[in-house]
Every structure is written in structure tokens, then in C-alpha cells.
Amino acid sequence: MIPHNETMILETPFHSRCLAACEINLWEDWKGYRSAAAYTSMEQEYFAVRSNTGVIDISPMIKYRFTGPDSCAYLNRLVTRDVSKLAINRVAYTVWCDDNGQVMDDGTIFRLGENDYRLCAYARCLDWLMWSAEGFDVTIVDETAEVAALAVQGPTSCAVFKDMGFEGIENLKPFGMTYYPFENSQVMISRTGFTGDLGYEIWIEPDLAEAFWDAMFEAGKLRGIRAAGSAALDMLRTETGFLQAGVDFIPAEEAIRTGRSRSPFELGLGWLVSFDKPVFNGRKALLKEKKEGSRYAFVYLDVEGNKPAESAFIYSGNKEVGTVTTAAWCPTAKTNVAFAQVDARYGKVGQELKAEIYYERELKWTRVMAKCKVIEGAVFNPPRRRQTPAPDF
Amino acid sequence: MTNVDKNYDVIVVGGGHNGLICATYLARDGRKVLVVEANDSLGGASMTSQFSDNFSVSSCAHWLFQLNSDVASDMGINGSTLELAARDLSTIALAEDGNHLTISRDKLEGAGISEDDQKAFIAFNKQINKFCKLLDGAFKRRAPKLVEGNLTDRITLAKLGLGMKMLGKEDMSDLMRLALINIYDVMEENFDNELLKGAISLDSLLGSHMGPRSPNTVYGYIYRQMGEAYGYHGPAVVKGGMGAVGDALADSARKSGVDIEMGTPVNNINVDIDRATGVTLSDGRIFDAPIVVSNADPKTTFNKLVGLANIETGVARRVKTMRMKGDTAKLHLALDGLPSFSGLDKNQLGQRLVIAPTMDYIEAAFNSSKYGEYSKAPAMDISIPTIHDGSLAPDGKHVMSVIVQYAPYDLEGGWSDQNKENFKRLTIDRIAEFAPDLRDKIVASELLTPVDLEERFHIYGGHWHHGEISLDQILMMRPFPGASQYGTSVDGLYLCSAGNHPGGGVMGLAGHNAAKEIIKRGKEA
Lengths: 393, 525
Hints:
Oligomer: heterodimer
Shape of chain B: globular
Number of strands of chain B: 20
CATH class of the largest domain in chain A: Alpha Beta
Structural class of chain A: alpha+beta
Number of domains of chain A: 3
Strand content of chain B: 15-25%
CATH class of the largest domain in chain B: Alpha Beta
């Protein structure tokens, strides 16, 4: 743990480099860490990821390590997906629920070894993890501060790594991970990310963080490498249809008002729930929900026009049926996308709804009732995201 | 491994009194029921054991004072199936100066008791009995859930609410106030006599990890007095010891068609994802059944038999946080002859004797246990059953059974032989202060600490009531929210022990209510 009795905000192992790159000094607090919202301009950073390579410091992500003979059984009871199917050096996206089948958080599980896993989460939840450990032989360590991490995303990211000498990186499959020697130690690279593009995440010990950053930026100079902040990331994830905890759903433990949390089905994440595995948190409630129906549906909307439907009410005819949780004009897909939670009776793919959008131009507010259509999912989903070997750009 | 072919509808884990009662009701409903008991005798904590050659004693509970009368009658328990050697006994609060206080229902004698105290005692009892009657209605039914509130639950709640209203303004506000404070304050409000205050306080906390100043003790007292509503006007001595209760219930169960398997503990309650499928015994035999009813306490049930790994985190957490800390020991003495207590004749020796001279005495005794030590001057509840029942000891000889507060389960340094011996000595010496010739009469002795009680009766923490009887663990909170109507998060797994509503003691209602709930939910429950 980094002592922070003198400053309330922590700095990541890449901080010196982020600081140097952050020309507009736009910082925000990411779970206690100083984190750049944008370095130069959000648009520039967004396009770096879509056209070249954007580097996002994701060190503040909460990371837990699980070891011990019961670590697999433990995680299998904790999360909704079947962890026993996860092979070594593979990564899985999942959610985890409370007993009521309400989503507490989403994140990724990395299987590092036989009885060795890492869970990356949005929120700290050590208390819940420890409670869940009763009856299991598992050791849980919060290694958030012990592992420095970067998301290296975009079409040229593979090439940058090849230039760094990471031979064969192009053969790494999506959701796979591998190791390369770096300095006197090693770097773990996983083909994962939050942008829906070809991209990687790197995991390294904090002492080597700056050296890695320097080597990568040196190698990526001609590949258009650039640091990207959370604002760009938000647009990127919207374009590719990824949910953000705390934005698209309220983690069950944080929800104060009853009925404000959501189940995986209500977030369109039913595919993450595996009923044919041993008991897991929320199983009973989710089975019941499956049988009796959900309260809400989570929908992707293609909104008419180019005004982001931020915080808009959604109507079916004259009836208000839901609200928008995330909205953005997506430049690459050239689509005005919104994520919305609607009454479960609505939201079939292809259904026409309306979004009540308020926008301001030079102090003049306008209201539009924009038509929108329920779409299948991500509006940005390029082949390079999945291609193995990864293409060179 | 043997697979048993007989297709049981229900397996009851544990042949304690609640398990037997539950099994009997279910068998009478037409189900094939098997009771599996780890020990070689039935009745659970209602047991008689030989602790020395020819000397036997009720080895856990030693008085019968709150067996529910309806349940008893359903079980065919009457004078011919269960003989009471004595009943409606008085309680004698021993005084160091020999001027003891005798409490016989409403009547107080000795110890220079004042007219005011006598009057106040009658009024106090009247009020407590009102509260008991109020609870009586709720005790016979499953605890209502607060949230879902179906009709049955609403009726229970409405009756409870209406009952409170019917108490009248004064009693109702008294109940609301008293239930939340402690017996110490209530005693101070009502009485002057130290022995009286001490004796009532002791009743409010026997078997618990509480002192007179602990919240919840008033409820503990009301709970103990429930026996008044079931026709007990003081404790009774069961002929043959409390084991006779188990035997009588077992007879009743067998007559109703219940099969009973003894001497083999259940190792596991088998669960297929989230449904109970049967049990695995320690000898490897597996019995399958669609319904498993656990008469083991909730902690043992989930920690050991089901496994916390097989239930969801929220439930595991509730199991873990359930308060269940045994703080009571049992002392058994085999005596060559009747000891002479100063100021008591033989008839008086046959009553219930308590050593709790003042409330502060009990509180001081409790203080030690809070910090992991046994009481240096413990409070006690003493029975000499052989005065009424010669069957427990050879002619002319006696046994003394003593409930000792406080002996913490997690004693600092553990219950080593040395620690046990020291505590036993100290307890005997303390009794000997009232009965100087006691030590000379002892031919054998046995001390059961909460650790021994846990081992012998398979009760987590050696806690008599299968979980503290306190406002946070009664009604819809017993044993914990989500399992308070005998059903659990594991389909087909039910709980019927004293750890469930309405609670501990040899009362039998938990077993009764669990059976009713299972029957109500139908065959596929």
C-alpha cells in the first residue's frame, strides 16, 4: 500500500510520464488515483486509438489476486460465469452478483496459473470477497498498487510491440495472455481492452513502469502512439457497446434505494450467467427472474440526428418507458448511439422509440423528440479486433 | 458405500426433541421419515447419562419447565409415558447467612422479604404472564416475514399487534420499554430484596452469554416464563432424568412409523447445486430424500453439514454472524449421602436452589467471561433430582446437577485438564460455602464445559439455545433473515432446531412449527 497521509490522492507508477504528457492538466479522481481525463484533446486521443495507438494508464483499476487450492471453486461461486472452463493464460469478462441476483460489479478474470487468478474490478470489494471466502481454502490479496497496467489500444498497437521485440505477439488470440522478458524482469501482455479495437493490456511491476512507457513510446513514435485519457475511453467504449459500472448500472452494494440495482439479464448480460455449474451468488434469484421475467431491458439505440441523447427520457408513443444511461456521437461508426434502460416490455431489436433530447447552442436550449431504433449492439466492431495473427498497420 | 433402497420422503438430521417431534408430525402426515442420530440415545440436550458407576444425571438440561402442552399432548406425552417425579417446584435463592428466599409462583418467603416486595412481585408476575400469553400466539406459528407478507404472516403479525393493543396502554408501553432495556434496571425499578433480584436475573440469562446489565435479558426472562402458559408453575423433575423425554418422544415417533438410526453421525447433507438430496453418514452410507430437516443448530448445519462453500455469500455471512457463544457449564456430582445445606431441610433440598445472591454478583461473574476467563465466583442453578427419583443413584446416594454461569467457550488458554479441574474445584468450593459437608460426600464428579457440550451434543459453541435468545435473533430474525420460516436457501433443506423460532429450551415448538411448514408447502416442498 502506498502511504498517502500527506496527500489524499495517489499517483500511479506512470505518473511522471502522464504528467509530462498532460498538456491541459485535466485530471480526475479514479478510485483514489490521479488520472488524466484528457492529455491534449479528447477527440485527438479518440482518433489515436481508432487510427494508430492510444495508451491509457489503467493502473487504478482494482486488482485482486486469488491463490490456493480452492481458488477456482471460490471464483466460481463468486461470479456468474463458469470459471472452471477458463484455461491457463486466458481471460474472461464476467459480472458478479449479490444473493438477490443484482450486479455488484463487472470485470475480468485472468487465469495466471493452476490455482492462481487475478480479478480486475471497477470497485473495491474486499469485504465481500472476504465474506465469500468462508468455507474455502483461498488467499486473497489486493494487488492494485503492486501491478502497474496500461491499455495499449488501436490498429498499430501490435506493430508497436513487435518493434519492441515482442516476437510472436501477433499470434496472441483475443482474451489470451502471454509474457515477454523486459529489463531484468518480465511484462505480462493480454489481448484485452475496453475499446473494441485491436489492442492489448500490459501488466508490469511498478518499478519498471516508467522504463516500459519510455521504451514503448520510443518504439511507437512512427506509429502515432499517444497517451489517451478517460474522456476518450468513454467515447470508445460507447461506440463498441461496453457498459460502465457506476454509469450504466449502480453496483448493488452502492445502491441505497430499493429497486435501483440491476440483474445481469436487465443489463443484456444474460450470456454471462451459467446455470449449469455449482451454486453461485444470485443463482436462485436469477433462475426465478428467468422464469418470471425481468423488470428492465437494456437496449442499444441508434438515435436520429447528431445530438447525443444524454440523460434523455425514452418514449414509446407518448408513454415514458425508460432513460438513457450513456450517449455519444460515435465518429468512426458515424452513429449517434445511446444505451438505455427501458421497461422490459419494450426494447425488442428493431423497435422504434423516441428520445427526448435537450441541447444547448450559444445559450439557447432546444428540445427534440428524436426517433431512435433499437439495434443489436456495438456499432463499431472491426475484423481486426479478432484477427489472429493480428494485422499490421 | 451402501446405497439404501428404502425411499424416504424426509430425513431428519439429529434425534433431539425437536427432531423427533418434527419427524412424528411428518410421519403422521403420511411421509416415510428417517431420523439419524449421532449419539446412542435420543433427545439431544434432553439426555440422561451415566457419569460414574451407578450414578446417572440429566447431562444438559435438568429441569422440564416449558415443554409446550399442545405438542406434548400431540406426542402422547402424559403421566403414563413420561413420569414427573416432582413438579411445580419452588426456587430457593441461597443466602450466605442461611436466611434463604423461597419463591413459589407468586409467594415469597424468608430473607426478610417486605410486604412491598411481595405485592410488587405479584404485580410483576401478572404483567410478565400477560406478555407470555401474547407471545404464545406467535410461538405456535411460523415467524412472519416482514416484507412479502402473505396471509398467514399477516394474521400472525396482526394478532401480535392486536394482542399488544389489548394489553392496554400501560402494559403495552411497558413492554415496548422493558423489552429493550435490561433485567438489572427492571429489578431495581420493582424490588428491594437482593436475593429476589438476583434469582430473577439469573433466570433471565441462564444458558446465554449475557449479564444482568446486558440488553435482551428482559426478553430472556419472559421467554423462560413461557412455561407458565404451558402449565408449568415451576420446574419439574423427570423420572429417569431428561433422557426420559427423549425416550418418550422416540416411542411416539416410532409408533407413528418413523425409522430411527442411532450411533452414526451425519457427515454431510448432500446438495445438488441448490437442492438437498439426502445425507451421507460417517460410515459412508448415503440416504436419499427430497427433504432433509436439520435438527442440528444452524451453524453446524451450514458450516459443517452443508458447507459454506455450497451456499451463497449473503447466507454464509449471516450464518457466520449469528451470535452463539456458549458460556455455561454443567457440573455433576455423585454423592455418598445428602449434603446438609445450612438452613434447608430435605424437602427444601429437593427444590431448585440458586446461587445468585445479588445482581452485582452475577454481573461480576459475567465480567470474567467477557475477557475469556471463567467466573471466580460463578452463579448457579442446582438440582438434586435423587430426592424425588431414586433411579439415578444407588439407595441412599445422590447426584447433584449444577448449571454454572459463566464458563466461556473460548477460554483463554483453552479448556485444558488443569483449567477444567481448577474451575470444577472453585465451583464445588463455592457450593460448599452453603453446604459445608459437600466435599466429604463427593464420590465422583464431572464438569462439562461448553467445549464438552459441543462435542457431546454436537452444538456449535456449546450454546444451549442453539443461538442467543435476543431481540436480534427472535421471530423473523431467528436464526437469521432468509431462513426464518424453517425453509432455507437450499431447496428441500429445512431447519427444526431450537436455533429457529421460537427458540431454545425443551419446548418442542420449533420442531412442531417446522413440520407444519413442511406439510403446508406440500410434498414437493
